[in-house]
Amino acid sequence: MKGLVKFFLILGAVIFFLFAVYTFLISVNILNLKESQKVLSLWMENIAQLNAGLIGGILALLSLLISAAIFYASLKEKIIKREIAFGNPLGEVKVSLAAISEFVRRLGDQIDEVKEIKPRVVVGKKGLEIYNKIILFSDSNIPEASDRVQTIVKRYVQDVLGIQEVQEVKVFVEKIIPREANTGNV
């Protein structure tokens, strides 16, 4: 796929370059506008003698492929990082975002007000961004519980995992549920 994308990017760039040169040559009167219009009209008459539908379809498909290739290449530039690296005296350390996410999920078990935590960890421009969807118990104070989740997650990620670049820890309260009472039946 990479070769096809490069081909269409180069083809598109060449077409745009030739159009720019053509426009420039007309604007500085190196090419006569009327003569170039005659050449273009003769060329179009010759093309019209061919199957116009087939040529139109090919041109439409070519335009579609070029635009799709440019769109794909622009998305490809934003490669999603799946790990974060930091220096250590003995060398570089890489921690996968999945490992950080699992670590944060397990932290939720240690927070009394939280029934469940679903973290999503991404690498931002200035460091980690940790987005947490949480399910709280109904007897929790939401602002205090949210603050506690943010503080604990940030502190543990920095202290235990050694990742100092925690840019932000966001909390989204997804549900508030009643706490299940232990009935003592075993």
TrEMBL record:
Membrane-crossing segments per the record: 7-30, 50-73
Keywords (A to Z) from UniProt: Membrane, Transmembrane, Transmembrane helix
Membrane found in the keyword field: yes
Keyword Transmembrane: yes
Family matches, as NCBIfam families: anchor_AmaP (NF033218)
The protein, known as: Alkaline shock response membrane anchor protein AmaP
Organism: Candidatus Desantisbacteria bacterium CG1_02_38_46
